[in-house]
Every structure is written in C-alpha cells, then in structure tokens.
Write a structure and sequence with these properties.
about 475 residues, seven-stranded mixed beta sheet, 16 helices, globular
C-alpha cells in the first residue's frame, strides 16, 4: 500500500491506495489561517504536525499499515517556513496568499537574473520576496535563519529527519534555476542567503528518505520510503494523469488553473504564465492562474440571493455571449496581467438585463479569462490537445461547454472521485517505492466529454476580443 498526504491551506488529507491504485482509506484534519494584519496570511507549522498525526492515526485505524511501502507528499506552495540551526521554527509560516512582500517582489523582479533563471515574474506570493521582507522588517529573525523549507517539506523533516525538497515546489520559490533544476547561487545571494539554507533536491518520484523508526513503530509500519512528492498543482496533475506533452487540465475551483505538461523548458515570464518543473524527471509544466473562478460565481450567487447550482442549472443549452460583460477580477489577476489593483466590473447593463443574463456574463467572463491563459500558454509553444475538467465548478455543464467552445477543445469530466493532490502524492509514493514510471499515471475513467459547439465558436472569439478591450479601458480606473 501507498499513502498520499496533501497539506492544504484549510486542512490536511491523507489517503491509502493499493497496488491497483484503489483508494482503501481516507482521513482529514482541519487547519486554520491567521491574518494578524491586512494582506498577511500565516500558519503555525506545529499545527501541520498535529494534523498529520491525526490523519495517520485515522488511516491506521482503517487499514493494516504494515503493508505500506511508500509515502508521497503534496502541499500548498511558496510558504516560507524558517528554522534555526536546531530546526526550531522562528516565526509563523508566511503563506502563498500573503502579499505583504509586494515591494520586495518588485525590487527582485527588477533584477533581470530572476526572470532569466526562473522563467517567471517574481510574484509577491513567491518565497524569495518573503525572505527579503523578513530581512527588511524582522532582521533579528533573519539573522537566525539556518534553513528555509516549504510547507510539505517541513512535514518531511518530521517524517524522515532530513531537509529535502523536490523540483516542482522549489520552482515556486524564485531561487531555482528552473531549466537546470538546481538552486541558483546568484538568486540566493540576492536575498542574503546561500545554498546552506536550502534543502537537498530530489525529483518528485525519487526517494527522499525513509520514515523514522519511532514513527514507523507508532503506526505498525516497516521500511517505508518517502517520495519527493510535488507542489499541489503538480501532484494533482499526476493524480489525473497530466504527465506528457499535449495533456492539460482546467481546474474550476475557488481560483482557476489551466495546467499543461511539457517535455521542454519554454518560459515566457512577460505573459505572467507560471513555468515550473513538474513532479517527474525531465518534465516541466506551465500554468495560467485566474484568481477568481468558482469564487466569482459564488460571489454573484451571494449577491443574487440564490445558490450557484440553482443559478447555473436553469440556463439550458449554451448560448452565444450577450452584450453584457463581466471582468472577474475580484481580487486582481495573475495571468496574463499580473495586476493586483484591477477589480471586477459589470459592463453594458441595460433594462433588459436580468439575473440569467448576469449569471451567463459571470460564467463567460471566467471563460474569457481561461482563454487569456490558453493564448499565453500556447504562445510559448506549449501544445494542448484536450483537457480534463476538475474542481467544483465543473458540475455546471453549461460552464464547461462554454470553456470547451472558447478554447476549441473537448473537455473530459472524470467519474466521481478524488483524483487530486493526495491521490497524486500516493502515486509518487508508489513510484518511489517500486521504481515504476509514468505508466502508473493513467487518466481516471471519464464519465462524460463535452465538445465545443462549433456554431458558437466565432461568437465566443468575438466576445473575447471585447473582453480584452474592456480590461484595457478600465485598468486606469483601478
């Protein structure tokens, strides 16, 4: 058996799979986020260990853990977990959605070495500007920093007693030479650090170490290896089988992600596309990130006083976009604008605009945002042949068909089941323990495929042109 642990912002999930990749057991433990100041977002790493102990205890109560051979880790990216020379935590972890380091990020991004070596804009959410912020605002803490770990890698330290990370998560720090898959001494020096402060790097499907004897004994395990694992999106991609060129997934979660696998490193930082290492050797991936996808629909549902399901379930067959436009920038946008100040807009409302028209406009606005990401990704040479749809928003077939029509690609919807980060982490644990390759990373069974509506593709293309013009028109008002 193989375990996958996925450290999310709101909870930690664990699953157990067997050799045939059937899920045998699941357990979860909640986590909370602290926001002591505006734009701050933090967690106490000790809470991750408490959650992991609860999840492992829960799994051990469901299956005989003596059959476990490998564990894989997944987790939210970019978090700055700062340790002293005795591995004591120096301050709460600064999380991915913390934007206090916007000024430091801009300073680092002005250094051309960062985009040249990482292939990415230095976003405030990345790890390097957070350390620059600590250096500027908490110098007494910065002086004690001996190791910087990403959240899931702090769990690994507890599991195996070593400082280790892997390529997909490390690529989101702004310290990794993403093409060479190694730390950059120059980028580390730009934030007052060196290689000694970084964990050892392995590939996501490789062995990073073995579970400490005391923990193995606690859960009745024998010799168990721990895989490198992956950042949350890379692990999720492994979970749904997005591991080869041409494969991609579209995630309609709170945020939106268009994720494409690639066997080449082909960055385009100016497009605000994320170009990271995948959790598998000699593989990279690109992501377009929309900050409000299902979150935009949920916001509109709250305003309209109706559930999201009720709003979308009564729309009927896909229609051509109307004149009303919605720009879904409730909290700014990443791809392709890298614009933290822009905010959402409804445009071209008139006396005939009703709730259904505004609901369609919200779905269309997010669809146009995915088209922005699609154009940015394919503009770098990344090939996308078809998509797997994941996330709660895919329950709206109207919305999925709108995306299929806008992108000109079929969207496959898996059967019910969790094929996310924990499942991908378990697959990576299987690969590390057995030496298996990507042949174990098949796609899940498909329940339904939604094809583009050919008769409406020109209408969606024209609406996207208007959407792009609308951003250009309102950006100065932000």
């Amino acid at each position: 058996m193989y375990i996958g642990l996925d450290l999310g912002t709101s909870g930690l999930k664990g699953i157990v799979i067997d050799d045939a990749q059937n899920v045998l057991a699941e357990a979860t433990a909640p986590l909370t986020v602290q926001r002591p100041h505006d734009s701050w977002s933090e967690q106490d790493p000790a809470s991750w260990i408490t959650a992991a102990e609860a999840v492992m205890d829960g799994l051990a109560g469901q299956v005989d853990m003596s059959a476990v051979r490998g564990i894989g880790l997944s987790g939210h990216m970019h978090g700055a977990t700062l340790l002293d020379s005795a591995d004591n935590v120096l301050r709460p972890c600064i999380l991915w959605n913390d934007t206090r380091s916007a000024r430091e990020a801009a300073v680092l991004d002005d250094n051309p070495d960062f985009r040249r070596l990482t292939g990415n804009i230095v976003f405030p959410g990345f790890t390097a500007p957070k350390l620059a912020w600590v250096r500027n605002h908490e110098p007494e803490i910065f002086a004690k920093v001996a190791k910087v770990l990403l959240p899931k890698d702090y769990l690994r330290l507890w599991l195996i007693g070593e400082h280790v990370s892997e390529m997909s998560d490390a690529a989101g720090t702004a310290w990794l030479d993403v093409g060479k898959r190694d730390w950059s001494d120059d980028l580390l020096a730009a934030t007052g650090l060196d290689r000694d402060a970084m964990p050892r790097l392995v590939e996501g499907s490789a062995v990073s170490g073995t579970v400490r004897a005391a923990l193995a004994s606690r859960w009745g395990m024998k010799h168990v290896v721990v895989a490198g694992g992956g950042g949350d999106n890379a692990a999720s991609a492994v979970g749904v089988g997005i591991v080869k060129p041409g494969q991609a997934f579209v995630s309609l979660g709170t945020s939106g992600v268009l994720f494409a696998a690639s066997d080449a490193y082909q960055p385009d930082a100016t497009s605000a596309v994320h170009t990271f290492c995948h959790a598998l050797p000699d593989t990279w991936h690109q992501m377009g990130v929309i900050l409000a996808a299902a979150d935009a629909l949920n916001w509109w549902a709250g305003v309209a006083g109706e559930s999201s399901a009720a709003l979308t379930g009564s729309l009927g067959a896909l229609q051509a976009p109307g004149r009303t436009l919605f720009l879904p920038y409730l909290g700014g946008e990443r791809t392709p604008h890298n614009d933290a100040r822009i905010r959402a807009q409804f445009l071209h409302l008139d006396h005939a605009t009703d709730r259904a028209a505004m609901t369609r406009a919200v779905l269309e606005g997010v669809t146009h945002a995915f088209r922005d990401s699609f154009d940015a990704l394919t503009g770098t040479g990344t090939r996308i042949d078809r998509l797997i749809g994941v996330g709660g928003g895919t329950k709206s077939h109207y919305w999925v068909q709108a995306i299929a029509t806008s992108l000109g690609l079929p969207v496959d919807l898996p059967v019910a089941g969790d094929f996310g980060g924990a499942y991908g982490a378990a697959r990576l644990g299987l690969m590390a323990a057995t030496g298996a390759g990507t042949e174990v990373c098949g796609t899940p069974p498909i329940a339904r495929t939604l094809e583009p509506v050919a008769a409406l593709q020109d209408d969606f293309a024209a609406a996207h042109v208007r959407y792009r013009a609308a951003y250009a028109a309102v950006m100065s008002l932000a």
